[in-house]
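Dear Dr. H.,

I hope your travels went smoothly. While you were away I took the liberty of generating a structure for the chain from your last submission, since the lab meeting agenda had it listed for discussion. I wanted you to have the full record in hand beforehand rather than looking at slides cold. The sequence, exactly as received, is reproduced here:
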Amino acid sequence: MRLATVALAALAVLASAGTASAQYGSAGQGGRTGQQQGGQQQAQPEEDARPPRIAPLRSRPNAGPCPFVKVLYDAARYVELDGGRTAASAVGYTGEIQGVTAGCRYFNDDPIEVQMNILFDLGRGPMAQGDQRTYRYWIAVTERNEAVLAKEYFDLPVNFDGSSTASVTEEQSVVIPRASITTSGGNFEVLVGFEVTPEMAEFNRSGSRFRINAGTAAATPPAQ
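The corresponding predicted structure, in token form, is as follows:
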């Protein structure tokens, strides 16, 4: 698992919306107990000598919903094809973003902090050269269904160690400034994807796909 942090703090966010439903977590319990000194009886009952117990508090609710976090379909997979041939024997390095889990927090007029875990499955086909490959991916913040506000690129170095596949989880943090206290996280989307060529994007859009270990094992002949 690798840990990286990105702060997309230069956004000129002009969207506005009302406060939405609150989200709650849990908090720990706290309390102290009184003590007697010198073995002498206290003048007041022991219960009165102790500080009052404080009821456990729930964590503070967010000021609104979290941004939508998703993988862009056109960039969800990375498939190198030698010579542009759509064949298992032409596959080099491959990758697929298997999923993203995310949560957020923001209070009052604070910016929105989004925490994400991104799961990558990577592969090495017959045309791959070597055990190491550095993939590149990006995270973008957009106004929902509108323009991109900010975009950052990241390197993902992978060592296959002689294997044909590898899995990596990336932890990322994105900070989104808000124009005002009424700006809700529901106004934003956080998108994730590989840096792909136009040919790779078209391959993804077509619905074509290879397994991440495509071409690494010969097919088993049918039983006679």
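Two observations you may find useful: The chain is about 5% helix and 35% strand. The beta strands are 2-3, 68-71, 77-81, 91-105, 112-124, 132-143, 148-159, 165-176, 188-194.

With kind regards,
E. W.
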